[in-house]
């Protein structure tokens, strides 16, 4: 018998019940934490949870969703200056001639809605009538990290809470065995133009860190240290955690430091995840028809397809906010090749997720979002004669995202852009409008959910944001 197991066996009956009582109290405390730190919803929600399929690097709206025949007519000609005005672009094209580049895909109308979708996205096209396309998104940032940060936290600089953290703070947990907020990442197979993933994209900022997203890894165990070390069984682990919790509680009584309470809760969650996560990630009981629906990469850990089916499994087990981030859309000089590769990686799993949720009766209560941090320019980056090096620059002034389920009208297109997809011409949607609408669908008033930090009340939408009422059911 190893020393730790032998020591455990020598515990007296009185010690066992004393420690056991503390363990039960600690577990109860951790179960109370999410709801105790959270407020209540402001009105009846239409969605219970969110799955955000964030496409890092910015998909090209004019090649995928926003069909503009004028691009083909103007191919190779300089875009009229009145469409650009004093717009700021990245240093890669700021002082270059801006020649129109025709779309590199073919468009076709789909479904009863007649939505225009690229030939590169056949699976997404097949569910067009379930989607709400917002073609009038616009943002303030022209570079990736601040633009992603703006979408996910409401501010361009690091340090503010992400959307999932705000929802955890505002609504609490639906499952005490798994995190309220989970993040997963993936990259294109060739890793040709990926963006970095910063922890702040799922960070809690100035909110208590109990609301921070838990990052699931793409290989090996999804969470480190799920297995107990040699010589440590579940009973011993329980007693260790109870002893640590007792010390932490005494320290909290002396300091009143909220992060100590968070630490207790995190230890308890980690203990519970030793059982819940292996069950979550076991796909052996998934029907072959479901696995086939997600595509050939579904069993490859760390792929977008694998993350999508994990997102569905997390959603049905009560995780409130699931953030999938897939990098590889930053096509400055490899648009002709890499755009199709990205679509192959993400198209089938994205559509499968919608179908899977619908088959399980979960889509009406799950808000699914697909989109990046901005769009791509209608003009060329590169030499018009060198087709292999064609690319498009960053374009924050007009781009497309889609939403499905969770109280959003299906089969509609909202907003419009000019003949080149350069400027919003109808129903502009700012990032804060998008965030306000997301929170509204989950029963939260974006103006009322605030947290006092450094002497002022902060909110996800800063001091802006209007609910997009026309897209709501």
Description of the structure:
The chain is an alpha/beta fold and 473 residues long. The chain folds into two domains: 1-37 and 232-274, no CATH class; 42-222 and 281-471, Alkaline Phosphatase, subunit A (3-Layer(aba) Sandwich), CATH 3.40.720. Helices cover 35% and strands 15% of the residues. The strands form five sheets. Strands 1, 4, 5, 6, 7, 8, 11, 12 and 15 form a nine-stranded mixed sheet that branches. It has a two-stranded antiparallel ribbon with strand order 2-3. A two-stranded antiparallel sheet has the order 9-10. Helix 2 packs across helix 9 (258-280) and helix 8 runs antiparallel to helix 9 (258-280).
Helix coverage percent of residues? Answer: 25-40%
At CATH level 2, the architecture of the largest domain is 3-Layer(aba) Sandwich
Q: Radius of gyration over alpha carbons? A: 24 Å
Total number of beta strands: 17
Low-confidence stretches: 1-38
Could you give the order of the helices and strands?
HHEHHEEHEHHEEHHHHEHEEEEEEEEHEE
Mean pLDDT over all positions: 88
From the N-terminal CA to the C-terminal CA, the straight-line distance is: 64 Å
At the fold tier of CATH, the topology name of the largest domain is Alkaline Phosphatase, subunit A
Biggest sheet features: 9 strands, mixed
Shape: globular
The chain-level structural class is alpha/beta
What is the CATH C-level name of the largest domain?
Alpha Beta
Task: Count up the helices.
Answer: 13
Strand portion, in percent? 15-25%
What is the domain total for the residues? 2
